[in-house]
Write a structure and sequence with these properties.
The complex is a heterodimer of chains A (about 150) and B (about 600). With about 150 residues, chain A is an alpha/beta fold. Chain A is built from seven helices and five strands. Chain A has a five-stranded parallel sheet with strand order 2-1-3-4-5, sandwiched between helices. Chain A starts with 5 loop residues before the first strand and ends with a helix. The radius of gyration of chain B is 78 Å and the shape is rod-shaped. The longest helix of chain B is centred in the middle third of the chain and has 71 residues, at about 190-260. Helices cover about 60% and strands about 15% of the residues of chain B. Chain B contains 15 helices and twelve strands. In chain B, helix 11 runs antiparallel to helix 12 (about 430-460). With about 600 residues, chain B is an alpha+beta fold. The chains are: A alpha/beta (about 150), B alpha+beta (about 600).
């Protein structure tokens, strides 16, 4: 799984940079594909006329996204058989109860609130990466299909 | 009986007397005849001399010839010497005469005694007295007859006899006079019978009278009892009347107080009774003539039909009514009335209608006003609710935006200053590194501030769901999760229970315990006590006490305000939101919280939840 790609859906450039930095500091070398809104994310995942669907090993999804919100994207991912098995980790600034509940309801595998303290952010990203990219065993069907 | 005997005796006596007189005459006559021969010169028979009409003038005779010379005895010899008397014959004569005289003299005494004693009872008193006189007179004649044997007082005898004759005839005349009256006298037997009859009659009458008296006594007794009963009943009646009057007064005053009157219509004769209040409601003079038909006319044309139908239904079906109608009073005022009626049915027929009548104009107006106000209020509430909802939405959006948008830049600040520090470590001098550190810390602190603020607003927006909470357990759990330095000692009261929202109470206790830990961190042997005690005017109150830094009591009012701090961030870090959150939670439970303490002497927070 260490070779699997990561799809980072994040519109805030700062956060993208910081997240990538955190990956780096945690020595997560997986390729990270960044999209900055929900529609791009879905196009990427479901594919378009010109592009084949992109199948990441892990999706990091922000909730507050332009065009199509994170929860909508999550819903779509889970409604689609092809993407249903992909682990989705919500990586967001909000810890509103409503967001947390809905995320899990729509099939999120994890919910991580980005701490303001960068040290702690790095720590959180590290643990998340370790779990989802190393420790977690993905769905067999998903694996055979890839 | 005695009377009868008396008269018989009287008659016998008369008879004997008469016989006696005759007898004495005969004697005298015989004596005269006997005298013819032995006539002496000394003895002269006057009768014969007078019979002879002798012209012999004898001075002695002349002298003694006067009738009135009654004691003159010169003309006759003593009887013993007149004729030939054997002693036996003479003494029989004399003794008999004396006996008769004695008897004749005794009798008047007895009679006189009788008369004296029974004077009042004796009838024909004159006759009685005449009898007495008659007997005495007869007795005297016999006495003189006896005396004449020795003393020939014939003149006296003649006078006596004359007197006797007079008295005898007077008596006879008197007797004849009284005879018819005497005939009327009833015999004692008859009288006795009469008396017996009368007595028995009287007895019967008496018995009847007795009965009557007894009956009367009974009657009197009954009468008295009756009177007593009547007076008692009267008293009761008076009392009842008084009660009734009071009740009536009460009834009237209640009616006028309630502005409610009673009425009754007798369907037999269409007579109507209205209480004073009803007249007043109609603005009629009390007692003014009124009928059911007239009553209908007082209603507003729109309502007249309703009441007429209700009354007809009551008469026909026996159902009552309770209506609110508009009435036009005699002065033309439109008022609202409540008309309540019910029929009184006897043998399937409505005979009476009666009910209540009330002026409800004020009530209706108030009700209408109330309705208007209520509608207005409802409208306002709806408006406010909409406003509030939109404000809430805005607030939610705001806090969402805060939690997202405000935190993101902070993370950038923190993250990039960190990156700067790490990537350009060699090119930065000590103060440059220090500045970056400060930038990073400020960002972190602001992040925390935002988090606390969000929590506070989140708490305010949450509902309170109350349940029984074991506060002792909850505190121990919080302490275990906090993992404080082992130097801290905790003393938690056993079985502390509180009713509240578990989520909110947990936040509250986390804040209070966190506070106590924080402010006693600089003490060597920090002791935190949690318990319950009774506080005056507050009842059962929980407390959490520490022996830490305490606070300046003068500023205790600032303790629970948001962003209010009594210690600098250098001394004790914090955002000033914790106790504001605690106070808000206490308020949401309807409880109260206050603190006591002084600088370096620890602080005690008291709270109670209105459970």
């Amino acid at each position: 799984m260490l070779s699997g790609k990561i799809l980072l859906v994040e519109d805030n450039e700062d956060d993208v940079l910081l997240t990538l930095r955190a990956f780096k500091q945690n020595k997560i070398a997986n390729e990270v594909v960044v999209v900055t809104d929900g529609l791009q994310a879905l196009d990427m995942l479901f594919g378009t006329e010109n592009k084949k669907p992109f199948k990441p090993a892990l999706i990091l999804l922000d909730l507050k996204l332009p065009k199509l919100g994170g929860l909508e994207v999550l819903k779509k991912i889970n409604e689609n058989k092809a993407t249903k098995g992909t682990p989705v980790v919500i990586l967001t600034t909000s810890n509103e109860e409503d967001d947390v509940v809905k995320s899990y309801e729509f099939g999120a595998n994890s919910y991580i609130r980005k701490p303001v303290d960068f040290d702690r952010f790095v720590e959180a990203v590290g643990q998340m990466g370790l779990y989802w990219l190393v420790l977690n065993e993905p769905m067999r069907s998903y694996k055979t299909r890839t | 009986m005695f009377t009868r005997l008396f008269y018989i005796t009287l008659l016998v006596l008369i008879a004997i007397n008469c016989w006696g007189q005759l007898d004495s005459k005969a004697i005298i006559c015989s004596t005269n005849q006997q005298v013819e021969a032995p006539l002496t010169a000394d003895v002269f028979n006057y009768d014969e001399a007078s019979q002879l009409g002798s012209k012999i003038v004898n001075p002695a005779i002349d002298e003694n010839n006067s009738l009135f010379n009654i004691l003159d005895t010169s003309l006759w010899p003593a009887r013993w010497n007149c004729g030939i008397w054997t002693p036996a014959h003479g003494w029989l004569y004399i003794s008999s005469d004396l006996a008769i005289w004695l008897a004749y003299f005794t009798m008047p005494f007895i009679l006189a005694y009788f008369y004296y004693r029974r004077q009042s009872e004796i009838p024909f008193k004159t006759v009685f007295i005449l009898f007495i006189g008659f007997i005495v007179a007869c007795g005297l004649t016999h006495l003189i007859d006896a005396i004449i044997f020795w003393w020939p007082a014939y003149k006296l005898s003649a006078m006596l006899r004359f007197g006797t004759a007079l008295i005898s005839w007077t008596t006879v005349i008197a007797l004849v006079k009284v005879l018819p009256e005497a005939m009327e006298f009833k015999s004692p037997r008859y009288l006795q019978d009469q008396v017996d009859i009368r007595t028995s009659e009287l007895k019967i009458a008496n018995a009847k009278l007795q009965e009557r008296i007894e009956a009367e006594v009974k009657l009197k007794k009954m009468n008295t009892e009756l009177l007593e009963k009547i007076s008692k009943q009267n008293e009761e009646l008076i009392a009842k009347n008084k009660n009734l009057a009071q009740l009536h007064e009460l009834f009237e005053s209640v009616q006028s107080a309630a502005e409610m009157g009673v009425w009754e219509v007798n369907l037999d004769d269409n007579s109507v009774y209205l209480s004073d209040v009803i007249y007043k409601i109609h603005e009629l003079e009390i007692g003014a003539p009124f009928s059911l038909e007239e009553g209908f006319k007082f209603y507003h044309p729109d309502y007249r039909n309703i009441i007429e139908q209700a009354v007809n239904k009551a008469i026909n079906d026996g159902t009552g009514w309770d209506l609110e109608l508009i009435l036009i009073t005699s002065s033309g005022n439109e008022i609202w009335v409540r008309a309540i009626g019910m029929p009184v049915v006897a043998e399937g027929k409505t005979i009476l209608l009666r009910g209540l009548f009330q002026d409800i104009t004020d009530k209706i107006l108030i009700d209408k006003k109330k309705q208007e106000i209520n509608k207005l209020l409802e409208k306002k509430v709806k408006q406010r609710t909409i406003e509030l909802e939109s404000i809430n939405k805005e607030l939610n959006a705001f806090s969402y935006s805060v939690s997202h948008d405000l935190r993101s830049p902070l993370r950038s600040i923190s993250g990039f200053s960190q990156a700067l520090k790490e990537d350009y470590f060699d090119q930065l001098d000590a103060s440059g590194k220090n500045y970056l550190e400060r930038i990073s810390n400020a960002a972190i602190r602001m992040g925390k501030l935002i988090d606390d603020l969000l929590n506070l607003s989140r708490i305010s927006r949450s509902d309170v769901v109350k349940e029984q909470i074991n506060l002792t357990k909850l505190c121990k759990k919080i302490i275990n999760e906090t993992l404080p330095d082992p130097k801290y000692k905790f003393k938690i009261g056993a079985n502390l229970t509180v009713t509240g929202d578990i989520k909110l109470i947990k936040i509250m206790m986390e804040n209070l315990i966190g506070n106590a830990i924080k402010y006693s961190s600089k003490v060597d042997q920090p002791l935190i006590e949690i318990g319950e005690q009774v506080v005056e005017n507050k009842g059962e109150t929980f407390f959490i006490k520490d022996n830490g830094a305490g606070f300046d009591h003068e500023y205790s009012g600032k303790l629970f305000g948001a962003f209010q701090r009594l210690h600098s961030a250098e001394e004790f870090e914090g955002t000033g939101i914790g106790l504001a959150t605690v106070k808000r939670i206490v308020n949401m439970h309807g409880g109260s919280i206050w603190a006591e303490g002084s600088i370096n002497n620890g602080a005690t927070f008291y709270f109670n939840l209105n459970d």
